[in-house]
Amino acid sequence: MKFIDTIKNIWKIDELKNRILLTLGLLLVYRFGAQVVLPGIDASQLSGLADQTDGGILGLLNAFTGGAFSNASVFALGIMPYISASIVVQLMGIAIPYLQKLQKEGESGRKKINQITRWLTIGITLLQGPGYIYNLYAILPGSAFLMQNTTLFVASSVIILTTGCIFAMWLGEKITDKGIGNGISLLIMVGIIATLPQAFVQEFVSRVVESNGGVIMILIELIIWFVIILASVMLVMAVRQIPVQYARRTSGGSYEKTMGARQFIPLKLNASGVMPIIFAQAIMFVPSFAGKAINTTAVGQWMEAEFANIFGFWYNVVFALLIIVFTYFYTAITVPTNKMADDLKRSGGFIPGIRPGTETSEYLDRIMSQITLPGSIFLALIAVFPAVMVSLLGLQQGWGLFFGGTSLLIMVGVAIDTMQQVNAYLLNRHYDGLMKSGRKRKAVA
Hints:
With 445 residues, the chain is mostly helical. It has helices at 2-12, 14-33, 47-52, 56-64, 80-95, 97-103, 107-139, 151-178, 183-194, 196-209, 214-237, 275-293, 298-307, 313-334, 337-346, 358-393, 397-400, 405-428, and strands at 239-246, 248-249, 255-256, 262-268, 349-350. It comes from Gangjinia marincola.
């Protein structure tokens, strides 16, 4: 009953209700566009493309686009070029002084960085578009192309794919500004969830209809799935609280350190989110392509066979090691311990037993290094768990992708972030929040 009352309260807040309806409407537009096939392609002959994207690396890309990749849709590239551009700009910000300067300029600098990211997104899409079209030529029969192999068809399709990516990016930004939640992340999550029913039906048919384990195996898989979801929630929410003492300013303007409220600095166990997995997956494309380039040799054939299978042993060993390395790397560039120490010193705060300034920065950096190790290992285990499930229990590969990795972590992270935003609206209006810790007394009339 409390949950039902909370849902009712959500619709009592006009601003929150309008934001939710706008978000749902824009997400519906995105899902509709994922079903619109590129002009010049016979939609009835796309079965070959769907078969190739059933599992493997292409299956992973298809999951992120919500099936648009296998539909030869106008949104076939999804929002992934924008994600790639954002990662590149973020990494370049470490080495390029101009981007570092923009990062320090506040809102104006952020707008310029967003503009650079958009232009880079167009460039990446223009490179990926022709590759996608020629991949269609390699897979689909010639009769599937109503315009045949013409320059006009390739050029128009690349322009449409680029426009589709930019439109998806615009939808994501509108959701962030006018809706609820992070728009880009919501688009990815909705694409992932869109493939969930089909993946479960295929697993159900395999287990029950084909008598490959029966209903008992389905129940066991669902229990394991919920346990992994809980573990992912714990990973996303886990923090190490560093106690901080804030001094009060006396009437003479000086600080009195013996007085003040005690608070905490929350350091996340997994401060890098899913970015290490995305980085690692981008790198894992390289061995497979390198193997294809030198497939006349024994080493090339081994690389092509092992690293083209995302559920293979060596793929996941290297994948896990890369995740651990990238977790340390991304945490180092995104958690500014020096800035945290400076801000703490300027606000009159200090960590008990630690001197303000450099010593505080070194202390925070040491704590981050200590908690990042278990966080990175836990992240790597969740990332490779789909391969474990496919190998041990014989899951369908499409269903196995939901037992960990980027798919599950994105769904969990986006769901928690969206709930926190809804929770904030409820608390600001003196309603009970969605989350257990977010309760506030109702205003007294």
